[in-house]
Specification:
Layout (H helix, E strand, L loop, with lengths): L2 H14 L7 E4 L3 H11 L3 E6 L3 E6 L2 E6 L23 E4 L3 H10 L3 E2 L4 E3 L2 E7 L5 E7 L3
Parallel strand pairs: 1-4, 5-9
Antiparallel strand pairs: 2-3, 3-4, 6-8, 7-8, 8-9
């Protein structure tokens, strides 16, 4: 088999084993508190929970897995590094009337990382869950 054929076979094999996007995992310090935040403040649906280790909430096709201390998805890496909440990668949740949403969430005491930004694709703002994990609220530009 030629090198080009082997490379093509590897590329098709590597593309075929992924069935679909399953979800997003966030490391959290308190799963119960996080479930309350995502369900009560943002209106996501609770799919399952096994307190205090983990829970899964969802909206549409997005599954958000919340892994607390002791969950299999939170275990220490082989090099000793601990998995921690926070960072800059984030889920993006589409909303209508972003300015009104921001106002309501500020009144509820939620913590925002920035002010609303406006660009050619729409409006966005970043808020944090109780453990500092970022969430982007996004309102697409009218087309």
């Amino acid at each position: 088999m030629s090198q080009t054929a082997r490379q093509s076979t590897r590329e098709s094999d590597s593309q075929s084993f992924v069935k679909s996007l399953w979800g997003v995992r966030y490391q959290v310090k308190d799963v119960k508190r996080s479930v309350e935040f995502y369900t009560q403040q943002l209106g996501l649906k609770l799919d399952m929970q096994n307190l205090p280790a983990f829970a899964q909430v969802s909206v549409g096709n997005l599954k958000l897995i919340l892994s607390g201390p002791g969950a299999s998805g939170s275990r220490q890496m082989p090099d000793g590094q601990q998995q921690q909440p926070g960072g800059w990668n984030r889920i993006i949740l589409q909303v209508d009337d972003l300015p009104a949403r921001i106002e309501a969430l500020k009144k509820a005491g939620l913590r925002f990382r920035n002010e609303m930004e406006v660009g050619p694709g729409g409006k966005q703002i970043q808020l944090e869950d109780p453990d500092g994990n970022p969430i982007e609220l996004f309102e697409p530009a009218a087309r």
